[in-house]
Amino acid sequence: MRCIALDDEPIALAILQDHGQKVPFLQLEATFVSATEALAYLRQHPIDLIFLDIKMPDITGVEVAKLIGKQTSIIFTTAFSEYALDGFDLAVTDYLLKPITFPRFLQACTRAQEQQQKSEATTGDPAPEYLFVKVGYDWERINLTGLLYIEADDNYLTFHEPQRRTLTRMTLAEAQEKLPEEQFAKVHRSFLVAIDKIEKIERHQVTLGGKCIPVSPSYRESLLQRLL
After folding, report:
1. What is the mean pLDDT of the chain?
2. Options 3.40.50.300, 3.40.50.2300, 3.10.290.10, 3.20.20.70; which CATH number does 2-123 get?
3. pTM for this one?
């Protein structure tokens, strides 16, 4: 986990650095005594975690926390236990009371790592934006954002875009495995359509890109459930 620390006390930062070196999954990239410099660093570098002192002379850690993006976890550090409630009101990962012992530091870091792993598992990988298909001896790129529908004819598929058609040797089942499920729907044994391109739904067909595509009764109900 990539992290930074912000504290107006250099001694406190030194302790965090010492603890951080003992945690294998932690990478303490920088320490700051200035909130302005720390926030500037965060704007330029993706950081997973920040150790944040609450009581500082020019701005409180609570105020800094409100300026940090949700993608960065926060562990508050302070010598004043009365600030603990503020930390949990902001839904921070943990709250460390100074002087910070290593076992307590490790516990907080482990909690941050578990939260990150859970978030990544929930979010999953981003949907692909394109697909390469073989055309003759070459490979051509199909941009999924512009793809209207795919038409099957035996073991060949035609990818229909507004200004282009691409024919490739592939089955519809193979195409379904490569395409993001949430963006495309099978409406007929020979057709896959881009859900966000559907303009009109009729009893036995859908319209997209000015083209009418047949819809089989067996697929119509599931399509309506996804759209309505």
Report:
1. 88
2. 3.40.50.2300
3. 0.54
